[in-house]
Amino acid sequence: IEKKQNELQKIELVENLAASTAHEIRNPLTGIKGLVQLLSEKYNDEKDQLYFNVIQQEVNRINTIVSELLLLGKPTAHKLNTYCAKEIIKEIEPIIHSEANLKSVDLSIQFAYDRLPISCVKDHLKQVLLNLIKNALDAVNENGGQVRICLEKKGTNCVIKVADNGIGMPEDVLNRVFDPFFTTKETGTGLGLVVCKRIVESYGGKIKIDSTIDKGTDVEIILPLVLDKN
Ligand code: ADP
């Protein structure tokens, strides 16, 4: 028991640290971003522009990492509300369709259920789904790539599934996907799935990954349904 308590304290410490440093980093970063933008308008020879582009890309990358760290900070501190899974997917539909179109990926969304009430922080669950869909889009080929999103009801759980027919994962990758900063991508942060797991578990849910090399990957978000009170 004592060991478990120690672990929990450690997690809490890391969460607090992540959230507070993330805020501290974000503010000066906004300043840098604005000034680089100004400078890039002033120095417009080709080579300078190249450098400015790199700076801007790197700043954006730090911003992404910081946003993910912020999400890692105490998801339980937010107030949970009840939403239907379908309405949350509906709200991110325009973004994911445009991302899929950019890569010419065939994206399909099936809403088999209208009413699957789940308890969550809406923006956080949206972020979870966006992370999973981004991974799916990264994993598929431009030719013949397919990403399927569907809703299922399994017992007293709502299952949101994101499936792709992409590169899949070998066992050693699959074993490490939830390790902070583990990534196989050149511009990855290795925090996407860590954030997903953290958020989903804070709702009493689970995340399950099934993957086969060269066949594809299925990721399931399993969330307890909010049962009717009557
Ligand atoms: P990132 O996307 O920044 O690398 P993630 O935590 O989201 O961070 O993912 C960690 C790693 O898991 C990825 O680098 C990739 O190797 C693997 N992965 C995640 N989703 C998929 C997927 N749908 N298909 C294949 N590999 C995946």
From TrEMBL:
Signal peptide positions on this chain: none
Key words of the record: ATP-binding, Cell membrane, Kinase, Membrane, Nucleotide-binding, Phosphoprotein, Transferase, Transmembrane, Transmembrane helix, Two-component regulatory system
All residue ranges annotated as the Histidine kinase domain in the record: 20-227
Subcellular location: Cell membrane
Gene Ontology terms, MF aspect: ATP binding
Record-given protein name: histidine kinase
Residues of the full protein shown: 275 to 504 of 504
